[in-house]
Protein 1
Amino acid sequence: MTADVEIRGVEHRFGHFTALHRIDLSIAAGEFVVLLGPSGCGKTTLLSLIGGFLTPSEGQVLIGGRDMTHVGPKLRPTTTMFQDYALFPHMTLRDNVGFGLRMRGQSRRARDAKAVEMLAMVGLDDKAGRKPHALSGGQRQRVALARALAVEPDVLLLDEPLGALDLKLRRQMQDELKAIQRRVGTTFIHVTHDQEEAMAIADRIVVMNAGQIEHCGTPEEVYLRPRTLFSANFMGELNRLPVRPAGEGVASPLGPLPVPPAEGILCLRPESVGLSGSFSLGRARLTEAAFFGAHHRCRFAPLAAPDMRLVAHLPQGSHPEIGAEVELFGRDPVILPEAA
Amino acid sequence: MRYLSWAYLAAMFGFILLPVAVLVVFSFQDGRLPVPPFNGPTAEWYAKVLGDRDLMAALGNSMLVALASSAVALTLGFLAAAGFAQARLPGGALMRGLIIAPMTVSYLIIGLGLLQMFNWAGVRPSLMATGIGHVVINLPLCFAILSAAIGAPQKSALKAARDLGAGEAQVLLLILAPMIAPSLAAAFFLSFTFSWDEFIIAFLLTRFDVTLPVEIWSMLRSGLSPETNAVGSLVFLVSVLLVVTLELTLFRKASK
């Protein structure tokens, strides 16, 4: 029902292009892990290697402690929920969901019962006799999930399954996926390029870039304490200040700042900049403000560096007049070395 | 302008169908020659055709060769198309080209080649030899039609089926074949029609048991007769019935 996954020194090349550079990754049984990164970062390749659709050029893939590097998808304890759903158009939903059980030699009665149970889990048991073309995108999505889970895999692989859905439906499916994952306890490995989706569902996020793992941690860690500039940038909007050590603090374009000395880029999330905080960023003038519902997005020009812009998210109803000068404060500072 | 386009349409249908219409009309000719003037209808020639043993035997042979060769061509074409769709082979494009190549060669050349090869291999001219010849001409056709039918949705469904534990035979029979059923039917019936009509290869590769086109040709050698018109009309009727049933059943269902 659930198993851990271990990737040991996996490297994958397509011809002369190296898609993955010596990846090491341990995923615990029952964990919901999201592989996050821009397109071409190698996340789908990694998922294919775990599912058995590709064999790594080097390294090992272990599932539940067993070496699966050279085992095909048919014999792996994994199933995949594909981006385009890949439902069988000529079969009813019941037969679609029961297909994996049919391949495992179960009787029609047993597999029909299981199929209806799985369809009930995703709220489609009343449509068991329909065919996929009679369903909406979100419903097909649910059938694909039911089909992949019907064979009780140890590990479920999700290849950007929510990419084709509209925003509202996507949020709803994220909640459902998370709830179903808690219920069945199966290890979920989910690929996406949407960092909000990743934060909404993951126990742990693996940020990937150019075939390497940039950062691997809980959503809070990855967002608030990123390990690399790439990961900091990819997870959300960022104010970036080049700094270098100066005495007890650092020197920045805004003047000396009282943060632990280091050389690199000082990163501040827009919500970590405001009218109060743990250290002062000096005075600045508000140049633009826009209301986003949950917050005001304000752009400030620091008096010490008028060409620069600091973006701050201020709480509703608390932003100053445009052109007003206020003292800005920051908190949760992170200094990261500049990318090589 | 409007009348002109209708006239154009009528002329086009006339051009296509007039020869067939003439053939059918004069198969009812009361007289010895299928040429104007039309002397009044009679079913005499049809009775003669249906009572002609050689002709009926040839009809049976044609049916047998067409069914068997189409089934073989379809099976081989399906397997080849499924294979090429899923595997990336070195020189894959070249191999595809080689499979399709016989389509560009005239039946006469293929027939001559087969005749020489069968001679050399000691295979006697027979219905079997003709059937093999028809597989040679229809396999590229089946391969081309089925290859075009296997696109991204089919490939990803095959991937999903394997992921759920299906073996190769199950993947082909339970997933791929039903997904491209309309194309399978189209390929089969086209092959059947081509085999049914084919003359040159059948002429070169049969001797004692002949197919219908060869039998009709030998009837023609003794001159025109309303009897040959009657045979032609019957063959035409069979084709029309086939097309109409297909249109009403399979293709209508598939387009839904």
Note: Residues 41-255 of chain B form a domain with the MetI-like fold fold (CATH 1.10.3720.10).
Protein 2
Amino acid sequence: MLKSWKSIEPYLLVTPQTLVFLLFLVFPIATIFIVSFWEFNGYSMTPGFTLENYRNIFTSQVSLATYLNTFKFVGLVWFFTLVIGFPVAYFLAFYIDSLRWQIILFLVCTIPFWTSNIIRMISWIPFLGREGLLNKLLIGIGLTEQPIDIFLFSDFAVVLAMVHLYTLFMIVPLFNSLMRIDRNLIAAAEDAGASGFQVFKEVILPLSLPGIAIGSIFVVTLTMGEFVTVRLMSGGQAASVGYLIRNQIGSLQYPLAAANAVILLIVTLAIIFAILRTIDIRKEL
Amino acid sequence: MITGTTQQTQAFSRPDVASVHAEGVVLRSLTKKYGSFVAVENINLDIPAGSYCCLLGPSGCGKTTTLRMIAGHEEATSGDIVIGDRRVNDLPPAKRNTAMVFQNYALFPHKTVRQNVEFGLKMRGVKVSDRAQRVNEMLEVVGLSQFGDRKPTMLSGGQQQRVALARALVTRPQVLLLDEPLSALDESLRVKTRGELRKLQRQFGMTFIQVTHAQDEAFSLADQIVVMDHGHIDQIGTPAEIFSTPASRFVARFVGDNNIFVGRVTHVTPDTQAALIQLEVDKLGTFLCRGQAADVGMTAACSVRADRMVLKPHTADSHTPNHIAVRIAAVEFTGYVTRVSLVLEATGEEALYKIRTEDWMAQPLQEGQSVVLGWSTEDCIFLSH
């Protein structure tokens, strides 16, 4: 009796987690996948199997443009989070010696998360708007005479808000990678005659690639599905696939939304797969 | 593995690889402070060109800091570092004609063995074709020709150590700096690699400066041993000098197997070579020893090597001038030598006696027995500090 209990114990331990995954991850995704093949006549959907939804997406100029716009956001946000995140992580890892100060400065990096998403984005308005602080400042120091409109409700605003939010997701894994670099490797490179730039190119950059990969996965997946930031910061003028899906749900076009969701999921997984194929992150886990 | 054995025999056997022009290293009043902590204090040292020098001491004695200052990986707070005839304090590591073998080797994990060895040449802008030839030559010297395309993590500790050596030697430095190069290896490999290091130093003729905490390593490798403690140099000498005439209590204790007695100088008789000194040790009596720099009244010590003592029963007819009553606490057979732990009857302190195993077998003394430990005045070395 005791023995059989021992043998089923591990299974019992993982059962709750398995049920949660099945119920809240596998089941919904399976549902979306199935619904994406259902028929839709503009008013109601009927169970069935049709590729019409997918055909619709791939032939529609609007949805293709939306996908391209999403990729543009992903590319820009990824680029800026990396370019901003790397120096920050590098500074924290190589210039801050005490753990205490590293923790304090990390807390500073998490400030964007101290308020709710909506409040944070509304707060951008008095800063970026026509009469906002930034325009006042630029006019005040004489850099411009007319207020600049593109700061708010624009692609610029969308990318800015997302970079502001997601840079931390790049900093943390990068910091982790950089902290694992044996300081003697840098001394060894210098000993062999490497310049500061060569140390970076030959030693630090290659050894931080796993951190870049993990950070990129975070940023790409988060940005791919974004719709709240896109909606609010563009003032409804820019589109992303996530926003498109939300609109389709709003107008009860469930099969079309489901097909978009499936495509978005596949594209995201493909990008992650490509990242993992290029960079071996195993030693980082 | 068959390749392993052939590689072992080939290792370090390329007499055709040209030796380099060696340079000596001179340290003058060298000091390193970290805030208020003094890691190295005012040390002076002359290391002749082409010699093998070992910086020996316990962890935290400043030996690694000294080595890193010579290499240029630590900045000296004050003092001069001179290599050849150049003061190198303000030069970057690569301009000092030194190369360093790091503790745990610091091999680039993302590069192959070949790329690791090639690194210094690449950074110096050596042509690709020349690089390949010199890397091949170097890999052959350390017996790793067939491992060039592997990553360091796929090699054994001993092989990684050879890669580190090859990487340091490929740029033909005039001074090679080694930071505990053998400490990560297991005992048998350590002894073998020790011999190979020495051979390599002879072959290339460059100056080797090695940091170690193991006295056997220093004894077997060095032409010159520098014993360090708390950021100071306690003694500089050949292995034989350090072993037979330690200059301080610390050195006597650190090089091992010395019995040290602390007392007060009561009488000094000047002599041609070394003064005859009377040392009064609390509860044990007065000992006679030889040495220098003794003043009547000062607190000092004397040291006797454990293998230079004699152990006799109480009933013996004659005793050496220095003798004390001891009890045999434990007898430890270690092979050629037997180590006998003693307890001083008067104080309860421990002492050590070493004797050839066959001589020990030939006498009747046993564990638990009370006996007399004696030693001659000539073997008793006076230590002023």
Note: The first helix of chain B runs from residue 2 to 10.
